[in-house]
Amino acid sequence: MSDEHELLARARHFDQDALGRIHDEYYVPLFRYALYRTGDAEMAKDIASDVLMRLLEGLRAGTGPKATLAGWLFGVAARVVSDHFRHAYRAPHWPIHTPLPHR
What we know:
The chain is an all-alpha fold. It has a single domain, classed as Orthogonal Bundle (Rna Polymerase Sigma Factor, Chain: A). The chain contains 4 helices and no strands. It has helices spanning 3-12, 16-38, 41-61, 69-90.
C-alpha cells in the first residue's frame, strides 16, 4: 500500500496523526495553488483552509477521496477558486470614488 493510500485509510478513521500530517503536507501546496490562481494571499489562506475543511466533511459523509488524496484536494481547490471568481463576477464590488458627506 502506498504512503498516500495508507494516510487516506487512516484519515477515514479520523486518526489525528494522519489528519495532522495531511494538513502539514498539503496546506502550503494548496495555499500556493490558490495564491497563483487568485493573486490574493488572504483569499489563498481561506481557500486552503476551506479545502481541508471540505476534506473533513467529505470523510464524515463518506464522499471524500476514494483513490488519490492529492488529486481530490486539488480538484476541490480548483472548484473553490472557480466559485470565488464566479461569485465575484456575479456580485462585483465597485469602489466609491466620491467621499460621503459628514454629518
